[in-house]
Write a structure and sequence with these properties.
Keywords: Lipid biosynthesis, Lipid metabolism, Membrane, Phospholipid biosynthesis, Phospholipid metabolism, Transferase, Transmembrane, Transmembrane helix. The chain is built from seven helices and no strands. The chain is an all-alpha fold and about 200 residues long. It has two domains: about 100 residues; about 100 residues, no CATH class. Helix 2 packs parallel to helix 4.
């Protein structure tokens, strides 16, 4: 069993490759960000929903392909969270502009991003580049990216809007809780990394 674990660790390589299928999918997600923002601000909700759903599908696909076929790369590790955060930010801007979500929701999520940014800057100043992506953080992003299209649908005045509203807010609340829980877990990771770095520096 230990031999299998060591073999898996040896085959798990993060490469410096640029042109891989997961990276192309991540780039396509980034290209969709301005399209999505334009669509939601101009009330082209059908297009906005399609772009957001495609973003969710490609987000799942690029991670799955990268892990299954050993295509994980440094660029992919950078692009994936950047695309997630840009979609969350642009959705918050668009839905707030349309008065679909309250300002407090924007404040809660943006404050979390500020906390994470400060944490990563502190790590970088100590010579540490980022933190491993945590499952809770991915789950939080998953919930939020499902919540937003449902909340957009909830703006309709028909039965579909009535059904989408409670489901959308359920995803939103789970996303908020997990988003902040992930920040706490990242803070614990950061403290551990800095502690080990301090021990190495003094030894």
């Amino acid at each position: 069993m230990n031999g299998e674990s060591r073999a898996e660790e040896r085959t798990h390589v993060v490469s410096q490759r640029f042109l891989t299928l997961p990276n192309v999918l991540s780039m396509l997600r980034l290209v969709g960000v301005p399209v999505f923002l334009w669509a939601i601000v101009t009330e082209r909700d059908g297009l906005a929903l399609v772009v957001l759903m495609l973003s969710g599908v490609t987000d799942y696909a690029d991670g799955k392909i990268a892990r299954k076929f050993n295509m994980e790369s440094r660029l992919g590790q950078l692009l994936d969270p950047v695309a997630d955060r840009l979609y969350i930010l642009t959705t918050l801007i668009g839905l707030t502009w349309r008065d679909i979500i309250p300002v407090w929701l924007v404040v809660v999520l943006v404050t979390r991003e500020i906390v994470m940014t400060i944490m990563l800057l502190v790590l970088r100043r100590r010579g540490q580049v980022g933190l491993p992506v945590h499952f809770v953080g991915k789950a939080a992003t998953f919930n939020l990216l499902y919540a937003f299209p449902l909340l957009l649908l909830a703006d309709r005045s028909d039965w579909l809007g009535a059904v989408a509203q409670p489901v959308g807010w359920a995803f939103a609340w789970w996303g908020i809780v997990l988003y902040w829980l992930a920040a706490v877990l990242y803070a614990v990771q950061a403290r551990s990394v800095l502690s080990r770095a301090g021990q190495v520096a003094t030894s």
